[in-house]
From TrEMBL:
This is Probable chemoreceptor glutamine deamidase CheD. GO terms for biological process: chemotaxis. It comes from the Bacteria. Its EC number is 3.5.1.44. GO terms for molecular function: protein-glutamine glutaminase activity. PANTHER family: CHEMORECEPTOR GLUTAMINE DEAMIDASE CHED 1-RELATED, CHEMORECEPTOR GLUTAMINE DEAMIDASE CHED-RELATED.
Length: 173
């Protein structure tokens, strides 16, 4: 997926590519590309256009409820992945509202099971992602959500661009 260079957003000479597995989280600078594959999981990308820093999370479930005493935040859960973002945002002295968010994923990968159990994990993950962005006042500038197929994402932190490859299936929202 080649990118078209824009003035001021040229790819760096060397790129650090980070692959996120489910539950993964990474926050990087202008030499970083973050890649992941999604099904019912959701990824949020946050990017600061002036500072040109940002990150991506890949959460599997909306929340685990109560965090066990002494445990740190776990990127497998949407509410805790946002807390990981907030920690990085505070460390660089920025405000959450200065970032741009993009939200991806939440496919109904197990449509037959979801109908029988009335549980759609993808839909619940989407709801949590949207709730977290609203809670912290982070503007959502792009989204590709729902559907019934997986997605591959590639986030270029130097430009804020997110490249998406998705299989055909029920149209996402």
């Amino acid at each position: 997926m080649p990118s078209i260079p824009l003035p001021g957003f040229q790819p760096p000479e060397s790129i650090q590519e980070v692959f996120l597995n489910p539950g993964g989280f990474h926050f990087g600078t202008t030499d970083t590309r973050i890649v992941t594959l999604l099904g019912s999981c959701v990824s949020i990308t946050l990017w600061h256009p002036r500072l040109r820093v940002g990150g991506m999370c890949h959460f599997m479930l909306p929340s685990r409820g109560v965090i066990p005493e002494g445990a740190g935040y776990d990127g497998r859960y949407g509410d805790e992945a946002m807390k990981l973002f907030l920690g990085h945002i505070m460390r660089i002295g920025a405000e959450p509202e200065a970032f741009q968010a993009k939200l991806f994923g939440g496919a109904n990968m197990f449509a037959d099971m979801a109908q029988r159990c009335e549980i759609n994990v993808g839909e619940r993950n989407i709801e949590m992602g949207l709730l977290q962005l609203e809670r912290y006042g982070i503007p959502l500038v792009a989204k590709h959500l729902g559907g019934e197929s997986h997605r591959k994402l590639m986030f270029d932190v130097w430009s804020g661009d997110v490249w998406l490859k998705s299989e055909q299936g029920r149209k996402p929202r």
